[in-house]
Write a structure and sequence with these properties.
The complex is a heterodimer of chains A (about 325) and B (about 200). With about 325 residues, chain A is α+β, with helices and mostly antiparallel strands. Chain A has 8 helices and 13 strands. In chain A, the strands form 2 sheets. In chain A, strands 1, 4, 5, 8, 9, 10, 12 and 13 form an 8-stranded mixed sheet that branches. Chain B has one domain. Chain B contains 9 helices and no strands. Classes of the chains: A alpha+beta (about 325), B mainly alpha (about 200). At the A-B interface, helix 1 of A face helix 1, helix 2 and helix 3 of B.
Chain lengths: ~325, ~200
């Protein structure tokens, strides 16, 4: 008999609260309270537009599971970092609607057999979508559990035929200041476009994922539509959004946060409770959504709990030096 | 006589208005907590908005002397104590919110010894403490000629509060720059009017 053993990072779908259930409950609760508030202080209540998304077809690969609670859709889509749209956590939800994501093309360059400009559909057509429920740990010491839909990064990269010289893979986010107010800011220290990179073996790891969806639907713009990286054992900023360029490189690429503050953010950026950020501790994280009166602190685990899958990538490395 | 009365009425009205304005940040927060629209990380939003309110009220307190100079109406100084105490009030709430809603009273030692931005904020807060304590008329009399040089600590506190704010920026420092320009202006006009010594705390004039 063939028995499928679930890897430790897999979460069965049965553990995810169906979206409709909590949406209904929350909608009801917030509806009651909001209508009371509108009566009391009409000017303060803002209408929020739901992001435009479409349903996706996907299968549940293995059961990608943890017994942790998945963050609600509004938390994931209403509270995140996407500095192209501003530094506030609500700025992406507020401003990302301006970005047009269709049509979308990705330039493939560098040390590979099939360089060129690919329409997104062409790049993805041969692949079946699957759902993966991953922990996302932000370098700012908060985290959420997120049900992504997408394809393993390695499968896509293999089809582009990286050569033996390809030691790293580099990614770039869309640079379009007219649709991205954060890129127009005078006081931003980011040298746009946003850049990220992985070592080739990291990119080929089974966990590395290209997400095109969230909660069974296409990604809302604020979460990096139409396609983004998800590397769950690294701090969130490595999971670059709205990708327009993939380049295979022999040399280690310069990445955005490393360029801004190399003493604070390294190329590897593996989640590691033993290496503090110079300005704050990484020992714990606040799992969101958090209650009002009591912060929802949990202990941060090495490689964000994915040690079994990725520790071998770094076995001879001093992780305090290569942070 | 009638004119004097009218002026007093105006001053009292202005005091009520300023009192109400100073309560707006708290009212907005209370409303948000009740409506539940603070998002998935409410503790952080609460703590940060209380900190910003404290800083804004510090700046408002520092604005009164220049207003007096520019308008020629010394009545502005009557609101200094009230606004200063409001700044302290928000600072106390900010510190309590940080301890309860962000730290959860854990990691205290490491937080207050090893995080530079926390240290700057903590010192800014501690400097306000003696100023709040000596803000009553009675304490003013008791501290005598020390009162004024001691209360110049507000300049140091405001500068540290700004550093505390700036050190939390990850990339875009636009907001910090705006507040920095405001604070710098408020300090520079004092140097212009009273010389550098008018800024130095704990030195008798």
């Amino acid at each position: 008999m063939f028995i499928k053993r679930r890897p430790s990072w897999a979460i069965p779908e049965s553990e995810v609260t169906p979206e409709s259930i909590y949406l209904n409950r929350r909608k009801f609760m917030s509806g009651v309270i909001a209508s009371a508030a509108t009566v009391a202080m009409p000017g303060l209540v803002q209408a929020k537009e739901a992001p435009k998304t479409q349903s996706l077809e996907y299968h549940q690969a293995e059961g990608y599971s943890t017994d942790e609670d998945v963050a609600p859709y509004e938390a994931i889509t209403g509270y995140n970092n996407f500095y192209e749209f501003g530094t506030g956590k609500e700025d992406p939800a507020r401003h990302a609607g301006q970005m047009s994501v269709d049509p979308w093309a990705i330039d493939v360059e560098g040390e590979c057999g099939r360089p060129g400009r690919y329409a997104l559909e062409d790049l993805l057509r041969p692949h079946n979508y699957e759902e993966r429920i991953y922990r996302l740990r932000c370098v700012e010491a908060w985290s959420m559990v997120i049900p992504w839909v997408g394809v393993p990064l390695g499968d896509v990269l293999k089809r582009l035929e990286p050569s033996s010289k390809a030691k790293y893979v580099y990614f770039e986010t869309l640079h379009r200041p007219e649709q991205m107010p954060g890129q127009r800011s005078l006081f931003s220290t980011i040298d746009w476009p946003y850049r990220e990179g992985l070592r080739m073996d990291e990119a080929m790891n089974e966990l590395s994922f290209l997400a095109v969806g969230l909660y069974g639907k296409t990604l809302p713009n604020q979460n990096g539509a139409p396609i983004r990286l998800v590397v769950p054992w690294k701090y969130g900023f490595k999971s670059i959004k709205s990708i327009v360029r993939i380049r295979f490189m022999e040399e280690q690429p310069k990445t955005s946060w490393e360029m801004i503050a190399p003493d604070e953010y390294g190329f590897y950026a593996n989640v590691n409770p033993d290496v503090d950020h110079p300005r704050w501790s990484q020992k714990r994280e606040r799992r969101l959504p958090s209650g009002i009166l009591r912060p929802n602190w949990i202990e941060t685990t090495k490689f964000n709990g994915y040690e079994e899958q990725v520790a071998h990538l770094y076995k001879d490395m001093d992780l305090a030096k290569f942070y | 006589m009638r004119w004097v009365l009218a002026k007093n009425v105006r001053a009292t009205l202005l005091k009520i208005v300023l009192f109400g304005v100073a309560l707006i940040p708290l009212a907005v927060l209370i409303r948000s907590v009740m409506v539940g629209d603070l998002g998935p990380d409410p503790g952080k939003v609460i703590t940060e908005s209380l900190g910003i309110a404290a800083f804004q009220l510090l700046l408002a307190t520092l604005l009164l002397t220049p207003l007096k100079k520019l308008s020629g109406w010394s009545g502005w100084l009557r609101y200094r104590r009230m606004l200063g105490l409001f700044a302290f009030f928000y600072a106390v709430l900010h510190v309590l919110a940080f301890l309860q809603l962000i730290l959860g009273w854990g990691d205290l030692w490491a937080t207050f010894t090893r995080r530079p931005y926390i240290i700057a904020g903590a010192v800014a807060f501690l400097l306000l403490l003696p100023l709040a304590v000596t803000s009553t008329r009675k304490m003013m009399k008791r501290t005598g000629r020390w009162w004024k040089p001691m209360h110049r600590l507000i300049y140091v506190s405001a500068l540290l509060a700004w550093v505390h704010f700036l050190w939390q920026a990850r990339s875009d420092i636009g907001e910090m720059v705006v507040y920095g320009v405001l604070l710098a202006t408020l300090l520079v006009v004092r140097v212009y009017w009273g010389g550098l010594s008018s800024l130095i705390p704990l030195r008798k004039a």
